[in-house]
TrEMBL record:
<comment type="similarity">
    <text>Belongs to the UPF0053 family.</text>
</comment>
<dbReference type="Pfam" id="PF01595">
    <property type="entry name" value="CNNM"/>
</dbReference>
<comment type="function">
    <text>Plays a role in the transport of magnesium and cobalt ions.</text>
</comment>
<dbReference type="InterPro" id="IPR005170">
    <property type="entry name" value="Transptr-assoc_dom"/>
</dbReference>
<feature type="transmembrane region" description="Helical">
    <location>
        <begin position="124"/>
        <end position="146"/>
    </location>
</feature>
<feature type="transmembrane region" description="Helical">
    <location>
        <begin position="12"/>
        <end position="34"/>
    </location>
</feature>
<protein>
    <recommendedName>
        <fullName>Magnesium and cobalt efflux protein CorC</fullName>
    </recommendedName>
</protein>
<dbReference type="GO" id="GO:0005886">
    <property type="term" value="C:plasma membrane"/>
</dbReference>
<feature type="transmembrane region" description="Helical">
    <location>
        <begin position="62"/>
        <end position="86"/>
    </location>
</feature>
<dbReference type="InterPro" id="IPR046342">
    <property type="entry name" value="CBS_dom_sf"/>
</dbReference>
<dbReference type="Pfam" id="PF00571">
    <property type="entry name" value="CBS"/>
</dbReference>
<feature type="transmembrane region" description="Helical">
    <location>
        <begin position="92"/>
        <end position="112"/>
    </location>
</feature>
<keyword id="KW-1003">Cell membrane</keyword>
<keyword id="KW-0812">Transmembrane</keyword>
<keyword id="KW-0677">Repeat</keyword>
<keyword id="KW-0129">CBS domain</keyword>
<dbReference type="InterPro" id="IPR036318">
    <property type="entry name" value="FAD-bd_PCMH-like_sf"/>
</dbReference>
Amino acid sequence: MLATLSTGQLVSVIIGLLLLSAFFSSAETGLMALNRLKLKNDAKTQKGAWLAHRLLQKPDRLIGIILIGNNFINILATALTTVLALKVAGEQGIVFGTAILTVAILIFAEITPKTYAAIHPERIGYPAAFILTPLLKIFWPLVWLINLFTNSILRLLGVPAEIAEKALSREELKTLVIENDMLNPDVHQKMMINVMNLEHIKVEDVMVPRNEIQAININDDWDSIERKIVGTYLTRLPVYQDSIDHVIGILHIRTILSMLKNSTLTKRKLKGILRKPYFVPETAHLSGQLREFQNKERRMGLVVDEYGDLVGLITLDDILEQIVGRFTSQFGDRGLQIIQKSDHEYVVKGRIAIRFLNRRLHWDLPTDDATTINGLITETIKDLPSANLTLDIEDYRLTILEVGEDNTINTVLIKKLNREED
């Protein structure tokens, strides 16, 4: 039958087959290159996107119908090219015909359509879905049979037959956020990336250290307790008995405002309105702790180490500030900002957490014996700190700039050393 076709007819059929091969090649690349998030959104309003989404839910079937069509067409094109070559140049023309067909397939049926589809996946993928969907229904028995043999071979090789749609990894999602031009790079991008970074930040990195916790000793005289309540800028205060290690409850200032105004507040009443303290481990990640605060309807937690000893305090505001930044710079602000003086030189507060500093500046100051810069220096010198004292700790030079009246370090200049220059 093929031999009865004229030379012109054979050429026309081969060109048509090359176009069909180009369709299957571009459809495969276009559908696989579709952005899954945009596809799900477009599927709500566009029929082509909806069909493409359904096809991609069973990628093994989609690939099956595409490869069946493409291979059938290419084999048929090869057979017709052989007949054409025999007609034109005899047996010796078969080699030239095969070479010409190979180049034509590579250029017009593979490279060009696949490149275009990779650049414009929606222009190719959505319309192609209208054709591939009925083809898959028509040739479903053949596709099923081929996939049966293919999946059997995959199982023998230890490869699972089911192909699951993988979710975006954290880093891929970050890249998607950064490259999205619709987001304000100075506000929304930073906030969304900070939310994803909560998984890597621990409670101990942002907590208020134990020595900075403002609290009330219930055994103090009443005038002292009242002055502390009236003078505080905080809305919640831990209440302890003799030692901060023995917290008996959390006081919400708002619950005693009316009694303070009417001068009816007493120690007994104060104890009666305390809320049970809530403890959190220092190794908990902020993402999990944020959910715990929400589930337990809490805004403050007392941080304990592995032995149950109190090491700090964390509030919901501390976590939210990791997402949106500082809320305020009023007198209540802990002011743990890092001020850069020059290359590799920074001025920081003595009470800043070492882990927080390491994370912000990509440093590796030791954290085994202390949690704050103040504690690190004191533990190293084994003496009371003094201004202008300089010491080297591993690859860092620390200079004490200011010491408070209680012998705690207020500010420190830290320089990362270059050992080769030294």
